[in-house]
Records
---
Amino acid sequence: MAKNNKKAEETVTPKGRLFEYAPAPESPAAAGDIATSYGHFIGGEFVDSSGSEALKTVNPATEQVLAEFAQGTDEDVDRAVAAARKAFTDWSALPGSERAKYLFRIARIIQERSRELAVLESIDNGKPIRETRDVDLPLVAAHFFYYAGWADKLDYAGYGANPKPLGVAGQVIPWNFPLLMLAWKIAPALATGNTVVLKPAETTPLTALRFAEICRQAGLPKGVVNIVTGDGRTGAALTAHPDVNKVAFTGSTPVGRAIAKQIAGTRKKLSLELGGKAANIVFDDAPIDQAVEGIVNGIFFNQGHVCCAGSRLLVQESIQDELLDALKRRMATLRVGDPLDKNTDIGAINSAAQLARITELSLAGEAEGAERWSPACELPSAGYWFRPTLFTGVSQAHRIAREEIFGPVLSVLTFRTPTEAVEKANNTPFGLSAGIWTEKGSRILWMANQLKAGVVWANTFNKFDPTSPFGGYKESGYGREGGRHGLEAYLDV
Amino acid sequence: MSTVAANALGAAGGGLQDVAASEASLRRFLHGLPGVDAVGLEARAASLGTRSIKTTAKAYAIDLAISMIDLTTLEGADTVGKVRALCTKARNPDPSDPGAPRVAAICVYPDMVATAKAALEGTDIQVASVATAFPAGRAALPVKLADTADAVAAGADEIDMVIDRGAFLSGRYLDVFNEIVAVKEACKRPDGTAAHLKVIFETGELQTYDNVRRASWLAMLAGADFIKTSTGKVAVNATPPVTLLMLEAVRDFKAQTGIQVGVKPAGGIKTTKDAMKYLVMVNETLGDDWLTPHWFRFGASSLLNDLLMQRQKLTTGRYSGPDYVTVD
């Protein structure tokens, strides 16, 4: 549009003063009782660790300690794997329709306790209640419902008659979607007849431990689900355990690589869902207002702590100014602050370590010559916070265009033609997701065929559904989670 | 007709003076507007609908919403008595609380304008009249212009016209444009002032969001002071996504031309909760500039009583119930 856009920007600023939203806080008490210290969940019981080392989990919005939890030892892992092995015999022998009953029951309990789980997740993780309530929890329940439906239909999943489970699955999950990643791991494993030992991330163990209560509430046979907490040492002990048949990991590419090395030469089956540096590609014929929403959702959803985040915006040069004006105007309306306020759009960064990494990479962006912009917004004094940030003038060589930042930082690059867009989008060691924004259907199909990414979204971004497989190309990992494809990772096929 | 068109656009500026020079140029312009992705638009409207408006913010929003209402009666059964009763309600919406804000306007058929005008004597409540063979708009242009002129002569402060949806849907954009320009001309009074012109699209008949964006730009280019969703007389009236789209259109139009245009969703907005969602959309799409009755209105009849009940609840702490607001 016209040149006077610049001037007009000053006259149309939706950041208003007249209609200020009063605080609308969700009650922290809705999270239920948080114990002062937690052990592990092994063989259907909450048990103490064999070791004495304890870690602390903090509320990243306040830096207050929420609880202590056990650092799982080799012995703890051994006990958990043994419990899972013991349970495997009966669990895998159950008819699929019986396993489905438990999964349906778990799904329903999750729905019934969704407010409690959403608040607990927000407190432990820092993500806004609006997202835990409207995205995480509905998806968690949906995932259990979906795989419950598969449990008695495995004969028809395309893997031949009567496909067999693998045995004991060792699962290690990240802190960005603690309960959702748990669901992605546990639901297909149980539906296919495996038993599991799951290690939640060391900054977000609380919802996994609450899930253990739900397993008891659902009457799940003892040992089918075991939860061992701790940091990377516990994770390494679990993935290395000789009696684990299947390793599933979601997290960073360096750790994924280490796990792949560790289990190379064993008979363990492995699926990895690792990092990403997704391109969100906006063509000049895109629906601009919706593209802006998609860009915002792509990179600022969950504080940008999303492996498939649209962290590289590739915009066609001819609409760059118009799009960036609109994007900045929209970013100025983002509400950063208390995760429990129902009107918060962007919550707290999950940990001090992650904040340090985001800060370091952003400084590198500036040092390498990219132009940094953030809307004016007040940040709380305590806790870990980072303003939604935009870098323009980014080139493919910049670190912020190559490395996963895993925070609310968007790098903007431009392209001239569809071919150049594809080249730039694919020019990364990662390949988890991509977005295309155009009103031209034929171009969407052509682009989707060219892009080396496990998920390609067209005129939307960060849309998840349990029926849809998710996973990466290249250094974003291998194996698929979700959908019929997600069964394969847990079947001996 | 082209001279009339040029005059209307003269004011617009922003490099748009020649857009309506011909049917072809107008079509090119309207079809060159960015498309609307329906899924994305609806998702954005729904997400704004989850804002939680509490305590002081709620009190502010309720009073603002009341002050933005075009209190409407558009029935074949309308009588002088009915219109007078509605005007009394407009002057004093809550008999139990004289501090309650007044509504923005009364909206009636042209033959009731004089009655409403007299009943509202001495207040700054506007009288809006539908015109141009409302609601279908199926009449010859001279009839529509006479309808408009009659309402203006009777004292209407605002005219709510309907566009010719048949012409729009068959691609005769310039006919629609010229008709708006002509009606705007008919809004002029002998003393040089003019009635405010609201242009109704009947979005439920335009059906697609692309059509709504095109109609918005068409009407704004032709000189509309307000763009309005619906007549309230078809199955689908104002919806949050359609209104959000129109808010985006007036935002973009101001960015390009410097001219500010108002927005009026009408029909189907019945509860305080609904009204809040609309105000949140205005707040987060347009901001302070539009948060006044001068630039945003609700076309509604039953909404007022629900707002009053919620207002009573906030002031007294008790929910009074429908017997404590007046039915007019």
---
Amino acid sequence: MKALKFTAAALVASAAFAGVAAARDQIQVAGSSTVLPYAKIVAENFGETFPDFKTPVIESGGSSAGLKEFCKGVGEDTIDIANSSRKIKDSEVEACKAAGVTEIQEVKIGYDGIVFATDAGNADLTLKPEHLYKALAAEIVVDGKLVANPYKKWSEVDASLPDAEIAAYIPGEKHGTREVFEEKILAAGCKDSGAQDVIKAAVSDEKQQHSKCVAVRKDGMAVDIDGDYTETLARIASNKNGIGVFGLSFFENNADKLKVATVNGVVPSTETIASGEYPVSRPLFFYVKKAHIGVIPGLKEYVEFFVDDQMIGPDSPLAEYGLVAAPDAEREEIRQSFEAGNLL
Amino acid sequence: MTEFASPTARVSTRPAASRRDIGIKRRYAAERRFRAFGFGAIAIGLFFLAVLLWSVVSKGYTAFQQTTITLPIEFSEKVIDPKNERATDPKQLFTANYPLLVREALVKQLGLDPAKRPLVKQATDMVSASARSQLRDIVVADPTVIGKTIPVTLLADANIDSAFKGQIDLTVDEARRKVKDEQVAWMNTLAEEGVLKKSFNTGIFTFGASSRPEAAGVGVALLGSLYMMLIVLVLSLPIGVAASIYLEEFAPKNRLTDLIEVNINNLAAVPSIVYGLLGLAVFINFWGMPRSAALVGAFVLTLMTLPTIIIATRAALKAVPPSIRSAALGLGASKMQTVFHHVLPLAMPGILTGTIIGLAHALGETAPLLLIGMVAFVVDFPGSPLEPSTALPVQIYMWANEAERAFVERTSGAIIILLIFLIFMNLGAILLRRRFERRW
């Protein structure tokens, strides 16, 4: 048993040593679960197109977790790329700098549409940011005064909406999607409905004005979903009157089970999002450590392959999956910016 | 007196007897109630087990079948190597336009007009995009096929696969589903011709992760889980057994050992994600071990499994009667000989049971693997535990979050594979236990 114990200890030590000694020949990516399906398609095609390089490993875990991992430092034992469904925050850039990650290249890959959908059996739904704000905000304005949200049914919010109890499944606060939902829907609805003016009169601090606008009611009518879109889909399957928030690509894959709502009268599609007609969309990014280019085999080729038109162009596999391609000029700019080695 | 005595005796015995009767009835009733509760508890347990198994198997059994399309592919030199450079530049074979071969074969098979681009595109969409690497591998392995026409069995696209299995509602409006009417018509003709058919899906066992459901499998995850289980077993069994033998048989009973015992019991109840945090901080950040590697995962799971094994082993050692120890010591055996020749063999069945429970627990863990980067999309097979890999429960978790319909059955299919893996592990434990079991 003594010998066994000793061999076990030796095994641990030797394995640790081997870990340090082995050089990494595989790109490591972490981050947003929204970008994950796109990154997977690119990684798989990259592996098939470049037999000399290994297929990159792509972790999921969320934009914030990915960027945190990204900002741990430079070197083979840190990740090379962080996928993000939002722009990197100044605080994160600071954290990166503090850990020695001074050269970060930002790459935009396109746009993602956010859609509202309900069960396929329901009547057509025409939404406006104002409706969603009135139905979901914690406090709304009635007769010029801020009161706790009194609405129980969609039809009370607006006569054009169905006579059903309000039930909305919105992304939880840890999701990158939540920010888009707050900015493009709640804040816009707050402004359109005139509530903003009342709030401005009541509160002087600008930050507080904004957070009052985007505060969501907590009485169970709006449900935060911290899981993925599959969970939202399951919630809608059990509550046919519920309205859920989905990514455009997820909706397109499940269009036989869901009916999408128009926002401001515009049907969400890659075309309407690219043209900017459909209001709820956001850019998707990934961030690359410049110090790793030339060190990790295939990293430069991977980024170039990712931003090539055959991946993010209008007829690419990513567009087919639901990514909204950036306009031609912008894609060219993205490529040139990476080639030139522009830093954040 | 006798006339008097007998009625009094009757009077006095009757209430006493009936009092005793009431007690027995109550006790019998209590026992019956307890049995009913016990039976009810087992029935509820079995019911939920049946529901779970039914929901998994009924959704997942179709994952073990895959729709394939067998087409005569003409490996024409004009497409693969138009300038005849393959002798000097082997890269030519890698970058050739293989999808064109599939398109030409399909156009011929379906009798389409090659000029109608959208129609041809719809037809080629019926074949998985993985056909490209499949054909390339054929040509690279044996370049003499160039110029020949060979029937090749290609994977059907996941949407066609789902439609053929009846998982896509074809009655809804064409615009709202992934399979178009023309594709359904072609699918039916090809099925009638015997070109398109369902066959056993070996790919789900052998493929790595893929963004295309038809080309996705648990191969990498299975290998990763196997690596981890082997390393966990090799590390945790000796360390755990050695620790518990020392604590139980040799260590003095004092405050320090009491403290250690309390700590071990506490560690067994620590949420597994905490071990993941520890693994990230110590193994990856401090020791500099690679991310996403099965070795790091195995270390983390070893830490997690150790308390379980130590507690089970100590209980098994305690259960060995002291008379065995006394007899061995009385016959002149040393303390060490007593433990290793007499106590340990008798405790072996209990130790093995504890180890298997610990390993089964470790096999099903995803939370500690999240932080060390094993919840990841890994395509290439890991050649060693130091290369990136993933684990079976992780694969289930990742597939459960996919948008495509075809991943629904694959998620359940992966659960079935995990259950089978577990059954084999438990079977091994039972066999080992039978072998080691001794009676006294």
---
Amino acid sequence: MIAHAEALFRPLTIRRTTFRNRIMSTSHAPGYGRDGKPQERYQLYHVEKAKGGIGLTMFGGSSSVSLDSPAAPWNQISVADDSVIPYFQQFSDRVHAHGAALMIQLTHMGRRTRWDTENWLPTISASPRREPASRSIPREMEQEDIDRVIADFAAAARRAREGGLDGCELSAAHGHLVDQFWSPSVNHRGDRYGGSLENRMRFGFEILEAMRAAAGDDFLIGIRMSGDEMLAEGLSHEDCVAIAEAHARRGLVDFINVLGGQARDHLAHAVSLPNMSFPVAPFLPLASAIRREVEVPVFHAQRVTDLATAARAVAEGHVDMIAMTRAHIADPHLARKLQDGREDDIRQCVGAGYCIDRIYTGADALCIQNAATGREATMPHVIGKAARRRRVVVVGGGPGGLEAARVSAERGHEVVLFERETALGGQINIAAKAGWREALSGIPRWLGAQVRRLGVDLRLGVAADAAMVLAERPDIVILATGGVPNPGFMEGAELVTTTAAILRDGIALGGSVLLYDGMGQHNAASCAEFLAKRGALVELATGDRMAAEEVGTTNQPIHLRELYRHDVIMTPNLDLLAVRREENRLVPVLRNTMDLAEEERVVDHVVVDFGTLPDDALYDPLKAGSVNRGRIDAGALVAGRAQPWPEEGYALYRIGDAAAGRNIHAAIYDALRLCKDF
Amino acid sequence: MAGLFVLLAWLLLAGVIAQGLRLAASWRRGGAATVDWARGLAALPRRYLVDVHGVVARRAAAARMHQAIAGGLLGGTALVLLGIIPALRGADMLWLLAAFGFGFAIFGARLVARRRQPALPASLSGGAFQGLARDLAAYAAGGFLASLGILLGLWLPALAGIGLAAWGGARLVAGIATGPMRHALAGAVHLAAHPRPERFVGTAASLLSPAQKFGVAAIGDFAWNRLAGFDACIQCGRCEEACPAFAAGQKLNPKALIQDLATALHPEAPAYAGSPHPGISSPGPVLGRLHAETLFACTTCRACVAACPMMIEHVDAVVDLRRHLTLAEGGAPGKADQVLSELRYAFNPGGFESGRRLDFAAGGLRVLGEGESADILLWLGDGAFDARYGRTLRALVAIMRAAGLDFAVLGEAERDCGDLARRLGDEAGFERLARANVATLAARRFGRIVTADPHALHVLRQEYPAFGGLYTVQHHTALIDELIGTGAIRPEAASGGTVTYHDPCYLGRYNGEYDAPRRVLGRIGLAVSEMERYGAASFCCGGGGGAPVSDIAGVRRIPDLRMAQARETGADIVAVACPGCTAMLEGVTGPRPEVRDIAELVHAAMEAVPVEARA
């Protein structure tokens, strides 16, 4: 067991609510809301954490209290009217039944939202200053607006309480309305709500007083705030400590939930939701400093991905509750696993940011490695035994093959896994070689440990052929052979190197490189950084409007920062038409996608990323003999029903990139939903 | 001629008495002891024939040997002594019977010799013991020859026999003060005046009484009957074979330990010639014989005590010696000193805040305040601070709730029971904790105490009476056994799955409870596959007596050895019933059976019952 585990399992009582342990998940917006309500999917997602032993789960990040802070367009929660109360009641009953506490975050987004959605109301703030992230220019709030929003907060707190929730937090972080008032970067008012810090805090004070009056004494009300805006014209660490201290001293808050940074622009966003390029718990010192000055419990989240760090944070007194929000997305049962002495079975968050990045594109939060999260209605987190033991052969030890082997073995089947390489991991092993993407290796590391624990027969360093597969007398054959890098279909494709080859073999190219990105994913950006750091002059050209355009909100700024730092030239809006040899150099021919003008470069190397094409060398010889001729019943797969399994012979399935080049989550989801019903 | 033989026997008896007085004189160096001589002497035959024989007879060959040699020689000699009565001296029957007795002893002497051939087993001593078979054989053969010669009137063989018996007998008697035969005389005295007579009637009292001074600093600080106990050792090596510390290559051999103590009393005796304390080549400073590491390697498991045919109390001697080292010299090694300090100031070995003892339950436990009452007081013990053991306690609490029991805990008022302090020699610390706990318990009303910690069970049941605390104390496995028996809980019988059960020393050897845990496992449908060493012969986990904190280095780790024994059974689960055993066995790395407390197994079996079928 990890050091100080006992510190995590020490109950904490605030007012009349006892959290059974110090492990929590902060309010966030997974995009599971429907019609502004937390309905079945949303509730099951949190119930799973309660089942998994969490002490406190907070939901509804940025749940809005007013109509001019619209929630529904981002599948979030609106607490602006009483219709949400029955959902809260059902939700809290379900979570409480498993011993966890349930709280919500209430907010008004102020300028940090858009006017052109559901309600078409103007955005409002302390002063009419544009927010770069939302691109909206707010109207300055009048006293009547202030009074109305205060009343809205009070009504929302009452609704939360009537819904049976244990408490709520007022969001004054990430540049929401209350901290827009606090921050001198936004608030330029000359009235009693502007000027001195005391004046700038007044709006929040009045909100909290009204919330307490409406919600009563046995309801928890806290605040989420930054410990340092890390913004030249914003709130300093000292300001934030003073704000926290003022709120605690006045008895306005039962807890303070501290984070670092803010989210007014792209890079600030990436910093406030740290990805795998950051060390673990980078902003814990901010929470620790505030805890020294206040008498109320302090909570903190931000890349606390492992329980050892969590335990240390609590045991050493830096915080009272440690939030492991993304860690629970990766493994909602982590608290129970630790408590049951099964910490080796915890699937640890790698910090890929796949979950959070999806919600900024309007999609739902999904875990790069745990395909059951957010799909609790159809996908199991705990896999039960099958009625009949079958013999399963998996070819390929990448994420898809490993997940297929893991799930099949959990079902109780006899599983043989062939992997051509001597190490498990597949293409993740290539991606993990790029600078700050190393933590991706945690995905196959966990899967590998699980399949070993489950007794899967691993045949490493064995390139299976059809005869070897059939010699195992399988009932089911799963081809997870992945893809081979595509050098492109243009003239001169034989002259180029792929990003996969560069990273896999660690090739440091000298001279000048044109790196052409036909995907917009991490691969080309990672590879450009890798080459530039080793001395190459790199131009990263792409047909997209900018580099790494498919990479999400919390990751793309880190790529761009590194590319700028290492003098990579980023050239958008170009197609690669051909590569020609000229003497001992290469001439890539490019065409602007907008004005269609052609241009050429003379470089030492051309590196390309056009994704992968399926490695289907095994598929053809096995297809004819299979009872399903390699077909997957897509209807059954999507509906979460079992495939029709053969009584005689073998069924053949392709998953992951072996079916078509996609991503890690697609491979793992393919495997889970196919194999959970064997 | 018969008269000559009778005279020899009486001369030998006189020699025995003289040697006995010499021994008694050395024991007088020891402290006073309260001995019920009348009861002790009356019980002596039973203690010999039932208790001693019971231990000896665990090895049939040894019992045969001892019956033949001891019975034959004592019987034959007693008959010859009777020859002082003239009428008997002339009776053929006397000499016929004597010849039978000595003949039987010849057979015994052959068994004594054979046990050392072809090679001397590691657990047996050489030195003076190598000549023992010869001396025994000489006396037996001489006696046989003399008896037969007298019977048949063959004077020359009779004379030769008397000469041989005189030679052998003289050597044996000479060895009573310092040689192998000391065990016979000292053993008889030890059995009659045993320092812990309760063990013969099946109650498991503690020998440890509140110390009047700081333990044993000189050999004479032991009570005289305990000195007699050390002299009773025949160096059979059974303790050595039973000792987990010795098996792990730690610097403790219980046989050598007893011989060190005997040598401290009889420095003139021939040197010990058995296997030494592992890794120790020269005498240490304690009593001029022992090293502190030897004393602190002991887990106080009492495997040696249970294995000893002479009923010697090794462990109590160890604790007495530790008391001096810890209290007078501040010499508790490793982390022991720090732990004792935590016990002094925080009242638990980990230095936790007292209130954190309830953290495992995350609220919901009824705390018994002063003046309040409950049917059952659940004594949590220090395992409650440990996250792993919290699982066990949660399972136990769930079982007790399901059974509808009226129970409560002491909460912040509970202090460490004192077991660790006492075994580590901090008698003062133990007394402070004991008196505080007795006072706490006196202010509350309860029917019985239930605990999942056998160490707390032992201390509360056996050692608090000395401080006025008299309680009914029940181990959780006994409670669960009772609850299933009365139908208060109805766990589902598990199908399949093999389990082996590890007896906690303080539950088994110290308190005689071997059956309830096994019965509970049976009741939930688990077949117990016993390890080679189980029950009274069970092998310690390494967690007792403060050994995990004094942390004396060995060649192997005791829990690894125990787990290897568990692995040999092929069981999927090692069932445990003690927080110490849980922690030690959970610490074993590599592939191994799962470690589950019996409460966890029962709770899981209750959870397996479909909800609608639960009463």
